[in-house]
Amino acid sequence: MKAAFIRKQGPPDVIEYGEVPTPEAGPGQALVRVKAVSVNPIDTYIRGGMIKAALPNPYVIGSDLAGVVERCGSGVTGLKPGTRVWGANQGREGRQGTFAEYIAVDEQWLYTTPEGVADQQAAAVALVGITAHIGLFQKARLQVGELVFVNGGTGGVGSAVLQMAKAAGARVITTAGSDEKVAACRAAGADLALNYNTADVDAEIRRFAPSGVNVWWETLREPNFDRTIGLLAPRGRMILMAGRDARPVFPVGPFYVKDCALLGFAMFNSSPAEQRACAMDINRWLADGKLKPRVDRVMKLAEAAAAHRLQEENTLHRVGTLAGKIVLVP
Q1: What percent of the chain lies above the pLDDT cut of 90?
Q2: Tell me: the pLDDT tens digits for 14-52?
Q3: Is residue 19 classed as helix, strand or coil in its secondary structure?
Q4: Could you tell me which residues are beta bridge partners of residue 127?
Q5: Does residue 214 surpass a pLDDT of 90?
Q6: What is the DSSP string of 189-234?
Q7: Which residues, in sequence order, are CB contacts of 303 under 8 Å at separation 6+?
Q8: Nearest-CA neighbor of 103 among 274, 271, 330, 326?
Q9: Quick one: 139 and 206 in the same domain?
């Protein structure tokens, strides 16, 4: 089968596209014919060596997938050939990644794709959707009527946070880097969307929310805690899910006197059962049209190196040329 893989960690140019052996479905696994995959920042960190890991050689890159079950190994009870599925959490802990024509996946990491939801949409929502759900509901315990702020409402995680918060009955403030992206945030349900290149964001947040923000979802790798804590409501919660090397100054006094909470997490630390609970809500919102994954562009699997380069430019260098997920198809 064809796959995008690496033999060593390094820049996007280390990605090769060619033939590798087709895997077999082992006990508890389904062999999935891949229809779509998507690119995540974590994928570029693993490929680039920012995350040190013992990888198979060759190592198929990628975390997310959507496709169709081809065969099932022994012990698989909830899937059968022909079932459309999506999933995430591949490409780590010795598991091969998803950028291939076929992948053998443990049943616990696969979820049935709702009828009427395209494979490209399912692949685009996988990791970012589970991430958004864990942060909003397991960590921040978002309540109906609360106010959420999320940086970058057209990004992969940001757009999922925006839509899930609205689906749960919250209000949302978000930012974007152009008037076109701001309009897209409003169309997705944002109660206040601001162009961070032209607006006085902090002044607008204070005007809209004089009592402060209940949940601040930080997508920036270098958060400004002085700024954020000043904009949080009493008992506000701040979510951190990026910035592995960040070491910002933290204003302890203003933080604790407001009874605030700082909540960090990585979705890969969540158990299969916890992630499946997220997937059930995601499937319901996808089927109801309340969650519409934002896809910036669709590329061929053979263009995996170019896709990684584009993701890296936007994640690390903030060039602003992406507004949503990069999806690849075989």
Answers
A1: 87
A2: 999 999 999 999 999 999 999 999 999 999 999 999 988
A3: strand
A4: none
A5: yes
A6: T-SEEEETTTS-HHHHHHHH-TT-EEEEEE--SS--HHHHHHHEEE
A7: 328
A8: 330
A9: yes
Task: Identify the domain containing residue 71 by its residue range.
Answer: 2-113+294-329
Reported as half-sphere exposure (CB side, CA atoms, 13 A), residue 175 has a value of 20
- 21/146 same-domain check: no
Q: Identify whether residues 141 and 236 lie together within a single domain.
A: yes
CATH code, 65: 3.90.180.10
The residues with which 78 forms a beta bridge, in sequence order, are: none
Angle, helix 304-316 to helix 41-48, in steps of 10 degrees: 100
The one-letter amino acid code at 200 reads: D
The answer to whether residue 277 sits within a structural domain is no
Number of structural domains (the chain) is 2
Q: Which residue type occupies 56? A: P
| pLDDT value of residue 244 | 78
Average pLDDT, the chain: 95
The DSSP 8-state label assigned to residue 100 in this structure reads B
Are both 322 and 242 inside the same structural domain? no
Q: Is the pLDDT of residue 246 over 80?
A: no
Answer whether 0.85 is exceeded by the pTM. yes
Q: Calculate mean pLDDT across residues 103-117.
A: 97
Q: Is the pLDDT of residue 217 over 90?
A: yes
Q: Residue 23 domain-assigned?
A: yes
- Predicted confidence at residue 194, as pLDDT, reads 98
**Do residue 32 and residue 156 come from a single domain?**
no
- Residue 55 falls within a domain, yes or no? yes
The Cα 202–Cα 271 span in angstroms is 37
